[in-house]
């Protein structure tokens, strides 16, 4: 098992390196001169621009700058925002908790609602409940997140006043965005949970358990769910990526501070140090969540480790 | 050797075809498909939308960019979906948007398919270091939240429809690459591949020619299912203002513009939103139906 | 419905119907409470030396300037007791108030002023706006502890106007600057009515009442400390959310609500709306006069006559702004009253002008050509933020120009891209919005010195000197003379002559003059505004209701 964990860890190292190169070069390729953006609307001379370029390190060739950037990132220094002139690490840290709390609350909704509905639909296969769950889930998956968010904001916050509109740091203001984001993700998870459970229910040992007279609920609860755990848990790893993307939209719609809104602003303002930091952090979050998922899966089912 | 092979009649049937018509694989697929209510609904929706997209010019009651003085009229007899802030007919805009969204969805998936197939075939066929590199590339791209990647790409190349296709396609090619790669891996050990290798015809392209038809059903399913996602991603880019340029009536963009008038004129966001939802729903249902019909493992 | 329109100075006519505002407030001020004030753009620093001009308005609560100007441009001494220029306006003698103390406890005096102006011109604080508005500054002499002489190497009549500008004459604590340097942007220390407490990025800045404050300007009803305990400035980029914040009771006052919200809340008795007319050059475009086909006056005039500004006003702005037919907004002090006679809506005349100039639709595609080249205009708009109706304006223009045979390609770019686009000279028409309080804004846009070039950012997007060097030289001279004039009369005369050249050559496309708009709960009283349309809370209080 230790060997597997080590191997799995080692496998993510080149990925992280490649991610960092990609992040750096993509942002590098953004059109426009960052120095011009820095001073847009203000007075500047050629000397001023040269100084600014030097301060930003833009006079160095790209590979050198990449190495400098990586070195600094390892020391927790993501540079200074071109626009706000604040340290990027501070900016990111100040909003990271807001994005994580949104993503985690949404994940909670996903797991509770998605798995419950999926299991119910599976054990009541072909009943009206199953049909209803699948119809709702299919529609839910097809709804654009920005649209369902806008409608929820319009009807539940603005008109009915059930939830606050301005996005303070309160729990109350977290509910609506988390539910909107979580429910859509739950619809995806419900469909997959249903088919996983159905597949497991059809396998031999369940049939045996049934034949031995084990109570139906026990069959589902103990045998089927335990074995359906791995695909569903793996799905949570995949879903992390979707949720991180989804926070961008959710935060924008609900005007909530977070990594997503910060990324959208950074793109609009060509604030490349901020953009680099956010994309890198998002990729690292995804990579680590999936690392954990793989390791937990291997612990639950040691066969995985020998594949 | 190679010459002899190329001179051999291609795929000459060894056994003469039986006179009586047998139940073919296609018949089974068709029967399975037609038995699936969801699949039928999906097919109907998609056929309808394709029809709308093709005949948008005829179907749209007005010019989608013609401006009138009827600013923000609610839905009524002359403007079924109401008008927007410049007095343009929303129904006509949504109808023309169908064409844009369909084109972007299909274009993006084709880009994803081409890149994914190339990458997957390379890795699966050559194995070893090349395969390791391919796996690493796939892992890397998968670790970016799709939307964030698409946003950066859209910002990188400027906002236009082809860029949106590329941005969305690059976010989805990993699915195809993984599918193709594992299919090739499985095929590699098969007799005919070994045979074609042993006779010196083991070129990459022969491999591709053998493998691709075999995984065609899976690809068709994945393409259909991905179109829904691609349309959603493209609409999200439009909503963030990183999509098509005005006055193109892209659905996501329509919602974005309508957002400022959400309390005064909610129809500006209701109709384009419903259009997106319907399209994605149709593509997903069709994809699910095709998967259930084509993939024997999932047949029930 | 309570809608106040603030009158601006020397203008007659257009806004003469404005209500007499200030006299209305009779209620007794209530002490205590927090005012929550939301606007769109997060501050980009709050120090007058290094903050970004456009995005630093939160700084006004922490910093007092030498002078503050009211909505009619009348100056009121703030940190300055009095000020006066010498005969050619090249030296300004400023007497300072006594007993002013910065938030860090250090006294405000002549040395603070000198240190500040010198710091503006320190190359290490590259590119502060002060340098732009105080060109020709040679130094500050300390006469005594409360008197300074600010000196220029040429006549600087404009300084009398810029003396009230926050990013020019707001004076930060010198001791604090020496201690924390550019961090002053993040933790400002000034002598204003409020002290800085905290800045939560992407969320808000919090200020608390400066209890020691007793040097308020006579623009305010009382010189003492603010009545409210604290002021929270919230950054809410999304217009709809800003409005919803007000309606949900989470905000007390919001700036720049969406036009839809103005229509809706303007008629709701629970809210009060204040509209301050913009000055300078509000929402407009200028032509690149060095590029075919906008190098031809006929084309530029035709474009101006083809655009239906009333429609734009009704559609994009829901009737909440005013169509603009002159380069300068009518509320600008140096406005030329004849200017609007040059621009009007006459699409048929526009077509005739094009035909006369040799443009004809030879291939029947609806677009006119000259020598086989179709007339296609690249139009650039900026700021694809939510709630910015630029796209709608552009689409409206596109449709109007299509009607006279001109094709328009709309390019939407991020706000900060303006300089990049202009530098590449890829534009025919480029959008900008410079609602500054004086006609000096013309110099920023039309003086050939301001033309962007390698290593030199500028806002002169017309490239007028390339197409018409003679006119351009004359215009430059008038703009400089206006800026350097010692008296207002002379200044106005020069700027009127400049407006004439600009107008008759159709260098720009004015579109719409707006208002700086606030909507607040009717519990909030006593908010005052300066000539830049910034809200000030010295007299503000929340009445009990």
TrEMBL record, chain A:
Tell me which UniProt keywords the record has, alphabetically: Cell membrane, Membrane, Transmembrane, Transmembrane helix, Transport
* Species, as recorded: Devosia enhydra
State the name under which the record lists this protein: Oligopeptide transport system permease protein
* Pfam families documented for this protein: BPD_transp_1, BPD_transp_1_N
Q: What is its main location?
A: membrane
Cite the PANTHER family for this sequence.
DIPEPTIDE TRANSPORT SYSTEM PERMEASE PROTEIN DPPB-RELATED
Q: Which GO terms describe its cellular component?
A: plasma membrane
**All residue ranges annotated as the ABC transmembrane type-1 domain in the record:** 96-293
List where the protein spans the membrane.
Answer: 12-30, 102-123, 135-158, 170-192, 228-254, 274-300
Family of this protein: Belongs to the binding-protein-dependent transport system permease family.
Which domain of life, per UniProt?
A: Bacteria
GO BP annotation list: transmembrane transport
> Where, per UniProt, does this protein localize?
Cell membrane
Membrane topology is: Multi-pass membrane protein
UniProtKB/TrEMBL annotation, chain B:
Gene Ontology CC: plasma membrane
Transport listed as a keyword: yes
Compartments, as annotated in UniProt: Cell membrane
Q: Which InterPro entries match?
A: BP-dependent_transpt_permease, MetI-like, MetI-like_sf, OppC_N
Q: What is its main location?
A: membrane
Record membrane topology: Multi-pass membrane protein
A Gene Ontology annotation in the biological process aspect, one of them, is:
peptide transport
Keywords on record: Cell membrane, Membrane, Peptide transport, Protein transport, Transmembrane, Transmembrane helix, Transport
Which residues does the UniProt record annotate as the domain ABC transmembrane type-1? 98-287
State the signal peptide span.
none
Q: Where are the transmembrane segments?
A: 40-62, 100-122, 134-157, 163-180, 192-212, 218-244, 265-286
Question: What protein family is recorded?
Answer: Belongs to the binding-protein-dependent transport system permease family.
Task: Report what the protein is called.
Answer: Peptide/nickel transport system permease protein
Native source organism of the sequence = Devosia enhydra
TrEMBL record, chain C:
UniProt-annotated location(s)? Periplasm
Molecular-function annotations in GO = peptide transmembrane transporter activity
Alphabetized, the UniProt keywords read:
Signal, Transport
Would you indicate the residue range of the signal peptide? 1-23
The family database entries (InterPro entries) matched by this protein are listed as: Peptide/Ni-bd, SBP_5, SBP_5_dom
> What family does the Swiss-Prot or TrEMBL record give for this protein?
Belongs to the bacterial solute-binding protein 5 family.
Name of this chain's protein: Peptide/nickel transport system substrate-binding protein
Q: What lineage is this protein's organism placed in?
A: Bacteria, Pseudomonadati, Pseudomonadota, Alphaproteobacteria, Hyphomicrobiales
